[in-house]
Amino acid sequence: MSEVVDFESAVREALVFLKQAFGFDQWFVTRLDDGECIVMQGLEDQAMQPGHTLCWSDTLCSRMVAGSAPRIVPDLAEHPGCVDAAFIRDSATRAYMGFPLYKGDGELYGTLCGIAAQPQPEPSALQVQLFELLGKLLNALLQMELRAETQTRRAERFAAQALQDAMTGLFNRAGWEQLMAKEEQRCHRHGRSCVVIVIDLDELKQINDSKGHNAGDRLIRQTAKALTQATRSEDVVARLGGDEFGIIGVNCDLDGGRELLKRVLASLAEHGIAASVGMSSRPAKGDIRSAFVEADLKMYEQKRLKSSRSLQG
């Protein structure tokens, strides 16, 4: 047995043990993200490997969590609530075991589950207790790790205070790069999504030229204030350059990102700030840097369209 030091290594050992104890063909831990069921960890020799994605509503796990199917089903043919799942129609699955995993706030994280291509023996009362206990222990470890991540994130922000933009108090480009890398590690580890928003001021050069750099500096500070008011404490807000700002919406799926974008646009409008804005989502199987590049391109496309309309007008 290898050393168990965190949720990931505990899951690895638990899956091997469950295979030995129950004999099902495949065991994995999944993560629910934006309507998708993503395999986060699995046994090395099984068909569904990490990164495999299913529609959550098609899975047996969704029925187990909803209560329309039991946690242990030795023969799926005997449970009408299971046989209509699209997953069953699309794969050779005749037996199922599952246990829900929750975050500390009660939101569903994903599941611990196993499937078999043939009906399995009815487990003994002791085996059922063992499965439930193992699920509860993994859930407790997961919640402890997620709480520790929150504290770690706060410590990272405190340490990154040295990497602040002097004019706005936001993180500077170096702080942005450092915190973006830290968030990428967390997203990769737990299959999370986030969004990146890039903001570029439309009128800074004109204000600097017509009203002086003091007025331009006031616009930059006002933009920082507007963005801070629109974001949450866990989000990363940075001044990336002269008139460019960036936001990482932490633990945001696409819907959450759209809500964050609405708040950003409303706050900019409330402060009378004209800006071009681009947003992109880091899906559970993507990476933040690619989302950053895409958001930047969307921002420049919006700026180009504004410039084109201005020339036509």
From TrEMBL:
Superkingdom of origin: Bacteria
Gene3D superfamilies assigned to the protein according to its UniProt record, in alphabetical order: 3.30.450.40, 3.30.70.270
Biological process terms in GO annotation: cell adhesion involved in single-species biofilm formation; negative regulation of bacterial-type flagellum-dependent cell motility
Molecular-function annotations in GO: diguanylate cyclase activity
E.C. number: 2.7.7.65
Name of the featured protein: diguanylate cyclase
Source organism (scientific name): Pseudomonas knackmussii (strain DSM 6978 / CCUG 54928 / LMG 23759 / B13)
Domain GGDEF: from-to ranges: 192-313
GO cellular component assignments: plasma membrane
InterPro entries from the UniProt entry: Diguanylate_Cyclase, GAF, GAF-like_dom_sf, GGDEF_dom, Nucleotide_cyclase, Rev_trsase/Diguanyl_cyclase
The reaction(s) this protein catalyses: 2 GTP = 3',3'-c-di-GMP + 2 diphosphate
Record Pfam families: GAF, GGDEF
Chain segments annotated as coiled-coil in the UniProt record: none
